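During the first year of the project, the team set up a workflow for recording each protein of interest as an amino acid sequence followed immediately by a discrete structure-token representation. This format lets reviewers and collaborators read both layers of information side by side without switching files. As required by the reporting guidelines, we include two representative entries from the current panel. The first entry is reproduced here exactly as it appears in our internal archive.
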Amino acid sequence: MDLTETKLESPIGPLRLVATDGGLCRIAFESSSADLAAELERRFGGGRIAESGGRRAVLDRSRRALDRYFAGMPEDFGGIALDAGGSEFQRAVWAALTRIPCGETRSYGEIASEIRRPRAVRAVGSANRVNPLPVVVPCHRVIGGDGALGGYAGRADRKEWLLRHEARFPLVAGSAAQAAEQRRTVSTRSRVL
């Protein structure tokens, strides 16, 4: 399978974006070329990095959306084709993550209940850990049931930065009271703000 790759400088460090013909398949934090190549080999078996107009267009849309997000503009990433792979369970978890509104958090237990697997809290954590599309599929918005940040494959300081960043986003529509409620919800549920 052919893949196309680009790099993006961001406030949380350099990101490497990779696309297949099906869409954006990986956002990697500072991983070495060898590590990323090994991961892509496991996922796609024999993939090679090559240019393609279609894949390049996906990467360009992804870069623009991420640039807007890091500039402080709420972004739903809905216009980006995704090719996350994963098991049926993982895809269900990742889909639930995309429904967490920007500036809010959910617990692992809440995600497990949402996907109708209330006893699968640990499995939800595992699916979060292997999410191939951090930021776009916002696994950073998932916290422990006690409000603790919990782990983050991209490092806890990045998770904290992303949550603080999103807490400052302007509301698309609403009053000052709604904005205050949104900030309160984020701060009390994540205990880092």
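The second entry, processed by the same pipeline in the following quarter, appears below.
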Amino acid sequence: MPNRSAIEWTEVTWNPVTGCDRVSTGCEHCYALTLAKRLKAMGAAKYQRDGDPRTSGPGFGVTMHPQALGEPYRWRTPRVVFVNSMSDLFHARIPLEFVQDVFDVIGDTPQHTYQVLTKRSLRLLRVADQLRWPPNLWIGVSVENGFALPRVGHLRQVPAAVRFLSCEPLLGPLTGIDLSRIDWVIAGGESGSDYRPMHLEWAREIRDACLSASVPFFFKQWGGRTPKAMGRKLDGQLWDEMPTACAL
């Protein structure tokens, strides 16, 4: 059985790769890095390779798991699947051939909807013409502040059925963001003991940009010491919009 997810915008997770490295300020309090350290201590087989201590940590070395490629074929009911919640599929240490294998599994199991999220949008763009692009695959990029906006331009150029942005943790304003050819936007604040607060005007600005461009908007959380510490309402309203390609 796949792993059920507590993430509101998906149903289950599938990790044919684990491990990663910090590449931007959005990675500073990475939940996956913290979880990998815990799983390594528990003896979980997928999390025994350590990463570079300068950019990664215990149990978070980039590791391919070919045996995991067969899992989606065994799921009996359709699912919305977050791919590599514990890694980044477009990490430089993941061979293109393995990325192609993951995309092939997605194409072979059209009953499921797959969501892939990356911070490495330039590599995504560079290899896009060497990948099979099935209609049940959504591709997103993380956009935590204005410095990450070039990732949106890279995403716009790939032939995904659904292109989405994850503005979480939102660490700065995204003034003037261009949502052309973007199909969905998620926004949310950071959680944990050292969380960096999200400003109300940043969240409103993204919501208003989505409304203006008729792009579905999903407000995940305000964040805080725990993920739901400050709730999920923005200006008194829940925003749980999804692309028309999927309804959870």
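For the second entry, the following points were noted during internal review. The first strand starts at residue 3 and ends at 4. The chain has a mean pLDDT of 95. Both points are flagged for discussion at the upcoming steering committee meeting.
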